[in-house]
Amino acid sequence: KVYRSTVQPLIHVERNLYDARSDSERPRPAWGRVIQREIYYLIQLPILFCAFFPLYEVVSLSVDSAALEIFLILFGVGVQCLSWTVFLRLLDFVVVSSKNTPAYAPLLYTAATHGWSLQNYSLWFLWYGTVPFNFLLSSFGAKVEGQLLYFGSLMQDMYSLSFADKTIVDDSILTGHYQVYSKLTCSPSHVGGTL
Fold first, then answer.
1. Whether 162 contacts 136, CB under 8 Å
2. Which residue has the higher pLDDT, 132 or 13?
3. CA atoms within 13 Å, Cβ hemisphere of 107
4. Starting from the edge strand earliest in sequence, which strands make up the sheet with 143-144, in order?
5. What are the pLDDT digits (tens) for 13-45?
6. What is the rounded distance in angstroms from the CA atom of residue 72 to the CA atom of residue 69?
7. Which ranges of the chain does DSSP label H, i.e. alpha helix?
8. Whole-prediction pTM
9. How high is the mean pLDDT of the chain?
10. What is the pLDDT of residue 15?
11. Which residues make Cβ contacts (< 8 Å) with residue 57, sequence separation at least 6?
12. Is 156 exposed, middle or buried (0-12, 13-18, 19+ CB in 10 A)?
């Protein structure tokens, strides 16, 4: 039997990794990590709120032309998306530079937790399946060997991903790490074919 997991069709499962201990014996999440994540969310929401609404207010109150107002708002959203992308790149840089230190695992957890939301704030999904998206992945350290059509749902540890020529990623999660219980394993991941 497979417990607490979703197995997709055509997937072969060889063994169950479910912790059979009773609920009272299972380790609980570290409160420090939970508090750190909540503090990050409390900081992130006002930053997101303050990043867009003042732009809209300033432009709508100071410009009389509707065409210029639309252009300035779209330009401001573009700058905001670029800013979130740079922030995500800095977060990845900090994670990569701490690879052989004790701080690596907590930083990787932070980057993995917040990478998805930062990719959404950066509106990366508008670039999925295009050549500029391949250049964006390359700027984050991923190796794209040829043509790539990416329409996935989540990508983490881009610096450890490499894509073969003519790869199609459709609604898959790509990471360069996995964890079984308390053992974290980080290694390069080569993606090829159709996912």
1. no
2. 132
3. 18
4. 143-144, 161-163, 189-191
5. 666 655 555 555 555 556 666 676 677 777 777
6. 5
7. 31-62, 66-97, 104-121, 131-139
8. 0.64
9. 79
10. 64
11. none
12. buried
